[in-house]
Amino acid sequence: MKKGIRDYEIGETFEGFLLIKEVRKGTASNGKPFLTLFFADATGEIEAKLWDAKPEDEETYTEKKVVKLAGDIHEFRGQPQLRIKSIRLAQAADGVRISDFIEKAPVPKGELQAKITEAIFEMKNPNIQRIVRAFVKKYQDRLFDYPAAAKNHHAYISGLAHHIVTMLKIAKSLCDIYPQLNKDLLYAGIILHDIGKIRELSGPVGTSYTVEGTLLGHISIMVGEIDEVAKQLNITGEEVLVLKHLVLSHHGHPEWGSPKRPQIMEAEILHYIDLIDAKTNTLTKALEHTKPGEFTERLFSLDNRSFYKPTFE
Predict the structure, then answer these.
(1) pLDDT digits (tens, 9 = 90+) for 190-214
(2) Residues pairing with 19 in the sheet
(3) Rounded to whole angstroms, how far apart are CA atoms 97 and 45?
(4) Whole-number Cα distances in Å, 90 to 8, 20, 234
């Protein structure tokens, strides 16, 4: 298996192709401009500096372009960084594609589609089922391509659908344990809670926040969409109000971005399921690149903590 950028250790040399995921401009203490480049492949990311950047460099090395690099891996502020020795744009003769450098969900797209369709068929409330089905149909293509975030959890192709399907599996188990839960509501909340990210984020390649996403956020976007879809379907029941509450409260706390705290049992459980899957995904990715007996890097989304990987199985 080909070695990915996350598999390189401090002191090793790198030569190969990477995708430019993000570019930031800066000015050094000597007054000369430089670029901070965030490179990525299907295994992860690494930061690098391009010192004494010329105007043509700023025009050439932009987001969503593949480059051929040579350099060595060193440590900067506790994190690996690539020291660039040579860099050029990839050429047609190199035979590389952007899709080669983007992480994908570990589950095939067809399986994700089937699982979400299966959950919709299980719904017994006709109003809830019709609303959810309308959203899945409306965003059919993008729903199964988009990531669930720009960084942190499920930040890869089909990450949004993968997040939804994993949450549905958790919900199914919880409904078996706690039959008092309204399965229709919980399933609907899971499928709908992050669909607003399709408008909040730019897409699966070089993911960034749209202007709409930055100004409104996926929660506000989705609440407005639920109203629109319900009106189109001529649905006016209490289900519409409750679905909007599930979306509004799924982050759990105002300081985490929720305009409302959960006040319905299924909304509370939705929040916990969302947390479980998001944090487990973040931890899994970090631990995959951590040797037994060592700690992960500090994880911002987990209170900036490092996690230990035990030496036994």
Answers:
(1) 999 999 999 999 988 878 899 999 9
(2) 40, 66
(3) 17
(4) 21, 11, 52
Question: What are the distances in angstroms from CA 147 to CA 74, 232, 242, 259?
Answer: 30, 28, 26, 23
- Which residue, among 267, 230, 231, has the nearest Cα to 247 in the 3D structure? 267
Task: Give Cα separations from 295 to 9, 43, 308 (angstroms).
Answer: 15, 19, 4
From CA 143, how far away is CA 117, in angstroms rounded? 13
The answer to whether 33 and 49 are in contact (CB under 8 A) is no
∠13-14-19 over CA atoms, to 5°?
A: 155
Give the tokens for residue 145.
Answer: 């391509």
- The pTM of this model reads 0.86
Q: Give the phi and the psi of residue 76 in degrees, each rounded to 5.
A: -135, 115
For residue 136, which of 160, 155, 154 has the smallest C-alpha distance? 160
